[in-house]
Structure formats: C-alpha cells, structure tokens
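Lab notebook, page 48
Experiment: co-folding of the full assembly
Goal: obtain a model of how the components sit together before planning crosslinking
Operator: M.T.
Materials (sequences as entered):
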Amino acid sequence: MTADLVVVGAGVVGAACAYFASLAGLRVVVVERGALAGGTSSAGEGNLLVSDKEEGPELDLALYSQRIWREDLGPHAGLWEFESKGGLVVAASDEGLASLRELSVHQRRCGVEVRDVARDELRDHEPHLSPGLAGGAFYPQDAQVQPMLVVAHLLRLAREAGARVRTRTEVTGFLRDGDRVTGVRTTGGDIPAGAVLNAAGTWAGGVADLARVHVPVLPRRGFILVTEPLPARTIRHKVYAAEYVGDVASSDAALQTSPVVEGTGAGTILIGSSRERVGFDRTVSAKAVGTLAAKAIALFPMLREVRAMRTYLGFRPYCPDHLPVIGPDPRAPGLWHACGHEGAGIGLSAGTGRLIAQALAGDEPDLDLTPFAPDRFPVAEEALR
Amino acid sequence: MPDTYDVAVVGAGPAGLAAAVESAAAGLGVVLIDAAGQPGGQYWRHYDENHARPDDRRGHHGLRTFTRLRERLDVLIGAGRIRYLPGHQVWLITRGEGGEFTLRLTPTTSPATDGTDGLSRAETARALILCPGGYDRQLPVPGWDLPGVMAAGGAQALLKGHRTLAGRRAVVAGTGPFLLPVATGLARAGAGVAAVVEANGTLGWLRDPVGTMSVPGKGVEALQYAALMARHRVPYRRGTVIREILGEGRVEAVRIARVDRADGRLAGPEEEIAADLVALGWGFTPSLELPLMLGAQTRRDVDGSLVVVVDDLQRSTVGGVYVAGEATGVGGAALAVAEGRLSAVALAVALRRAPESSREAVTAVIRRLRGEIRRGRRFAAAMHRAYPVPVAWTRWLTGSTLVCRCEEVSYGDLVRACRDLGAQDARTLKMLARPGMGWCQGRVCGFATAEIAACLNRRETTAEDLRPLSTRSLAVPVTLGELAALADDAPGG
Ligand SMILES: Cc1cc2nc3c(=O)[nH]c(=O)nc-3n(C[C@H](O)[C@H](O)[C@H](O)COP(=O)(O)OP(=O)(O)OC[C@H]3O[C@@H](n4cnc5c(N)ncnc54)[C@H](O)[C@@H]3O)c2cc1C
Ligand SMILES: Cc1cc2nc3c(=O)[nH]c(=O)nc-3n(C[C@H](O)[C@H](O)[C@H](O)COP(=O)(O)OP(=O)(O)OC[C@H]3O[C@@H](n4cnc5c(N)ncnc54)[C@H](O)[C@@H]3O)c2cc1C
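Observation: model returned without errors.
Model output:
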C-alpha cells in the first residue's frame, strides 16, 4: 500500500484534512490507532464559535472555517445536524458588560456579527435566564454540529473519493530518507507516502517525537454535564457568561469553570465545560463538576431541579500560545501537522482541512499559515515540556 | 459511630447483608447503604413486612438464611455497630488524598415519607464492599415497547412487593430457570399463565451432573417449581421464542416460533397465543457502575455479561475495594451470601481486626467459604451453558424494531451506523446512533447493543463492547442542585 498522503488520526481534524485532500485528487490513507472519533472529537461539544475569540489569527481561522462550513460543506450540513442557532453571551455585572462591549467592537472590525442585547431584552432571547444579569451580546454566526457524525460522514465521503481508512492501526514510527519523511511504520505494516500529516490531537506531541521534532501539545481537561431531556426550545441558543472568553485564553493550570449552556436536538441540555491542566487524569472531579452545575444554575435558576444523567470528560490539545499547529514542518520535510486546536478543534477543523489541502497541492492557501508554523515555539518553551 | 467508617457496604441483597453482618461481627465499623426500603435485594425483595401474609413465604427459598441474617442485622443495628441507610442510592464515589472513599447518597423516597431532609449526603469509609447485584437482561423483539410488556423481575417485584397482579393472561418468555418462579408466582396470584416460552432445552441443569452435584439444593428447588407448574397447568414450551409481540396500543398476543439451538434460525409453524402481560427475562445483567467508576477491571463471563474481576478473597483490582454477589458473576443467592461473607472476613484480616487467638478458625472459615464459592461458580457456569442467549438472536429483529426505547433507536439505525458510517464497536455505535444515551443510560439496551455491534461486524462480543454501555459517570441521575453542592464540600478536587 502506498499513498500520496497518510493522515495520522481519525479525529475531526484528520477527517476534514482527509476529505479535502481526497477531493483535491490525492490518494489518502487515514491511520487511526483506536476507533474513528475515538479521541477528543467524541469527548467535547460541537460548538462552532466566533463569539469567544479575540482579534487575531484564531479568529481569522474561525471566520474562514465558518465560510467553509456554510459554503463548501453546506450541502452536507444536514448529515451532521448543523444548526445555526446563535450564541448569547451574558454579563453579570456592569464592568463585565463594559468589557464585553469593548470585545465586540474589535470583533466587528474583523467581520464578526454582534448585536448588543440590553438588560431588559435578555429574556426575549432566553425566557429562563436569571433576572439579575446586566446585559449581553448576541452572535448570530455561532452554530453547532454533532462532531462524531462530522467525523463519520467526512470519512465516508473521503472513502467515496478514494481514501482508505485503517482503524485499530497505530503509527509507531516514520520511514525516513535522510531528514525526509517518506511514510509511516504502523502496527499493520509500513505505508510509504509522499507526505504524512500529524493529526493526532492531544497525542500529536508523541507522534512528532517519533519523527524527532518537538511540537508542544499538552492536555487541558474539561468536564461536561448532560441533563435529562427537556421540552424543545427550553434553552434556545448557546448561552455563556462573559468571563468565559478570559478563561479560554488563560494559561492558568488551576481549575476554571465558565459554563456554556445549550440545548441539543435530543432535548438534553449540555453544560460545558471546565478547564484545568492535570495531565490525563480520568477520575471524576467533584469540584469541577459541582462548580459547573453551580454556575449553570446561576445563569438558569430553573436548572436546579433538573437532573443530570451523566458527565463526561475530554482532553483538549493545547499549545502554550493557544494557537493550533498547521502546515509543513521544515525540520522534517514531508511531515505536516494539523493539531493543537485546543477547545475549538471541531469549529476550526473545516478551515484547517481546506487550507492543508491547498498547501499540499502546492497552491497558495487562502489564509497565511505563518502564525501556525510548527517551528514557531521558542526553545525555552519547548524545554518546559 | 466514627466520621469515617471502616467499611461501607453498598447493597443489602444477599451479598450485602452477609457482608455487613460479618464485618460488624468482626468488629468493623459498618455503614450499609441500600436503594431499597427494606433489606433483601432482588431475591428477598419481599412484601411489606408490616403486612405479611402466611403464604408470602412460599415465594422465598432460603428464607431461613435470610431470617437469620435479618435477625443479626437488627441486633447489630440496635447495638450501634451497623449504621443502616435504606432508601439511599450511591450516585458517586470519589477517593481522597488519604485513600479514603467518599460516597455521595441521594434518597430514593420522597423526604416527606422517609423523615430525612431529602438532600444528598456523604459518607466516608476506609474500604468498600460493593454488592450492587443486577437486574433482568432484556433482548429487543418486535413489539416489546408495547404497554403490557415488562421484565420478568419487574413482574415478580410487583407481585412480591406490592401484591399487584400485573395482568390476567400472561406469557413468560426468555431463558433460564428464573422464568419458573416468575411463572408460578403469577399463577399462584391468580393470573392465567398461557405459557412459559423457553428458548433452550428442558430444565437443563438437572441433567448436568457436575452442576447439580455441586449444589444439591438446586435440584430440589427445580423439582418444586416443575411440580407447581404442573399443578397450575402452565404449558412449558421448549426451544421456542417470541418472535413478535402483537397488539394495538397494548399487548394482545404473542407470536412464537421454534428456534434452532445450533444456528439460531427460526422454524415454523408459527403460533399465536393471546396474552395481556408479557414478562421477558434473558438472564441477568450485573450493575457495574460503581466498580467501573472506581476503575475496577472487568471481564466477560460465561453468560456474556460484563462482571468484575475479583481474586479468591473477593478483592477487585482497585485497592480497598471488595466486590461480592451478582456483580462478580451471576450465580444465585446462596453464592452471593458466601461471597459477601468471604469479603468481610478477608477485609477484617486485612485491617488486622480478626482476633489473633482465632487465626486458625478464620483460616478454616476462609477455606470453607472458598470451597462453597467454587462449587457455586461451577453450578452457575453449568447453568449459563444450559441457558445461553440463542446465537444469532439479532436475526429476529426487523429494521423498525426499537433497540433503545429511551432514544427510539431502531435496529435499522444501528445497521446504517455500522454499514455506512463504519462503526466497528459498541462505543462508536453509541456515539453515532445514540443507543444507551437516554434516561436509562444503557441499562436496558446495553447488552443488546454490544451484541449487535459485534454481530454486524461479524465477530464475537467482547468486554470492550460491553464496557462503554455499562459505565455510568453518575450511578443514578441527580439534580444539578445536588451536584452544585459538591462545589463547596469537595476537598481540593
Ligand atoms: C470538554 C471539551 C469541550 C469541547 N468543546 C468544543 C466545542 O464546543 N467546539 C469545538 O470546536 N471544540 C471543542 N472541543 C475541542 C475539540 O474537541 C478538539 O479540539 C478536537 O476534537 C480535536 O480534534 P483532533 O482531530 O485534533 O483530535 P482527536 O479527536 O483526539 O483525534 C486524534 C486521533 O489521533 C489518534 N492517534 C493518536 N496517536 C496515534 C498514533 N500514534 N497512531 C494512530 N493514531 C493516533 C487518536 O486515537 C485520536 O483518535 C472541546 C474539547 C473538550 C475536551
Ligand atoms: C425473579 C427472580 C427469581 C430468582 N430466583 C432465584 C432462585 O430461585 N434461586 C436463587 O439462588 N436465585 C434466584 N434469583 C437470583 C437472586 O435474586 C440473586 O442471585 C441475588 O439476589 C443476588 O444477590 P446480590 O446481593 O448480589 O444482589 P441483589 O439481590 O440484586 O441486591 C443488590 C442491592 O443493591 C442495591 N443497589 C444497587 N446499586 C446501588 C447503589 N448505587 N446504591 C445503593 N444501593 C444499590 C439494590 O437496590 C439491591 O437492593 C432470582 C432473581 C429473580 C429476579
């Protein structure tokens, strides 16, 4: 078996890259050590958010991805339950509202649609919101998908375009010709390839190590609560507190919880998510789960009597500067990366896949990939690993 | 009672009762927590004690063992040596820095009737003996979502606990000897039992020399049931399954067919039997949420159930966590009692509470219990082999048969997720098609979903298929208000 491109990892990022590369005519083999979407892509939520991003390269990628989701992938939107429901960010205090307004000024300049929502208009958007809030902002572009269906259908479409998907096959090393990467070694045999894409998510640092290059991706744990089903449209949008934006961008290792509350097609309410750096610890944290519940109740008092059916957790793949790693690795020609999307990998996958396919085909990518360069990390930061 | 107990026993069925009584007798500080309002578990799930009738006793084998355990329990509770918390479900267990276990409890009854404040509470203990038992295993069949269809144990519970007659013309179907007490119970309560539909052969374990020899009492029990069946003229249909449950708005009849034991093929002629109650039971599914929550290793047992791996002292692979009863393998009440006892004795020895003077006696007790457990296991294995879930049972399903009733996921949905989307295992199937994602969190459809995932991928079911559908991060749903309380009292995380 040979390939133009081997994609390591069948998460949402690997699936999107495989899909766009296959459409571009490359012969693609996806190699996944577990099951499809068995990593972080089945352990988070499916928000496609622009509202939580400050001005900068990540917001550019988010806006670009918005376009890909709606245009390139638009015809398939129904397959993965794409829903453009909009996000409502609420502030509890006047100071919080002031910084929210300031953020939105910058966001508008970058092309984000934002509507200011006054204190007394909040309950028109969300009837069950707590009465004491100061005001908010509505982001009509915020949308959601069902991430596992995204992965499964993108891979199905990629297969229809000629790609092959090998699950339960682990990449254990690289084929080299000098510095050049010329394929992968796997538990199912060697696969020579023109290019190899590291889309191993939170484990991408380990895959990079196999090629003797450093990519500092680390796990940032998050819990999510799932409630019993409630009547449709009890909670209509994604609703979250303004502090969330600060938490997302923070590098603090300690527990941060700012709930995003949203309804799903199945009627359950998802309450996500905490952020803390505790390695790959899978034990349930009473504190994280409790704090999430408490803060969700603060937003929606009616949730106090609603029952949670379960919690789950995942490990966001994050880099020290909170930007993903996207593009060719000059230290090992033939090796590419698409990883480290932290808490936004579902949303950013569409744009990432499209850009990677353009670059692989030798075209000028629609977005400048320099901010996402794999060798951008200062050596000192790498030593922190 | 101290703030931290030596041991928390979860479940007051045969295993848990024995474990609690034996632990306390050895001098350990014990808290016994059980979801039910009265001790006994599913075996001795009895009538309201305050309104007992003489004939209630007839439904309870091993009642003498139970009565003795009950008496000892009462004495130990009275002496302040067991703290007994009925009507409380453990929904979360976490572990502190010092290795102690914190159990979060939620009341199962309304605060008005149980005298507590109706709020969550926490208990801590140095060790755990988990005896959560199990419940009826279900297999989907066309029409099983009609009102009037229930789990065999559910019908039994109604009879035993509430003396409610669930229907007037019943069909009891599935496999295994536990169909017999359900059928005779219904008959004695005055229901017409139109048939017992048994997928496998006759009372198979009677002919299994190893099995019967190892637990002599069982043979006698089976003969008693056979006699009762005859007295009530209950037809016993062997090698037969229900292939469809019929009715408009509720059960009106079942359609049965013969099944080939070797290849699972259905053979005619089909036959319709009128019924207004269908009780289904395909063996038992152990409740594993608590052991799995703690990270205990599990394996697939002879009957296809996921069970906890324990050593010959009932220790799970997690330090300080003992498991006894159905959760270590379905095997009946006597075995559960022996395992409960052994776990308590072993724990007392581990905590050095077994008196030095009687070390020899303790060793002898352990040896005796181990022997009993070995024989019980052998009998159980023989029984599981005599009453397997028929091979290729998934062939009876049609595209529109619901597999997950909570989320209304049909067999056709599962086929599409496997064929078109590439689901190769139960976890992926659950992610893509949502079986087990609803209110019961896979308790009812978990076994079936695991088998379907394996079958559609043309391989044997594995423990990996069963695990994701047996794991529950919250052992029972609790309100967000109860969860929120964790934020304050959780030590560190
Ligand atoms: C609690 C939580 C909430 C979140 N909410 C959102 C949200 O609302 N919106 C959003 O956009 N994002 C969200 N995210 C983030 C998002 O889930 C991730 O960014 C995204 O799933 C990453 O996708 P991936 O494809 O890079 O990684 P993964 O999905 O983890 O895929 C990587 C794959 O690589 C495989 N792999 C690893 N090593 C090897 C090897 N050696 N050989 C072969 N295969 C290998 C793994 O098995 C894995 O399947 C959330 C994350 C969490 C934890
Ligand atoms: C209809 C029927 C007939 C049977 N007939 C026979 C027979 O004739 N002979 C025989 O040997 N066996 C028979 N059995 C099987 C027998 O009932 C079981 O083998 C036995 O009850 C197992 O004992 P256990 O202690 O393991 O579990 P159980 O009896 O199931 O007790 C477990 C207890 O734990 C509680 N619990 C579970 N989880 C939690 C939690 N999270 N928090 C608090 N409490 C919890 C449950 O509510 C329950 O009270 C029959 C079973 C049924 C249903």
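Interpretation: Chain A is about 30% helix and 25% strand.
Next step: discuss with group before ordering constructs.
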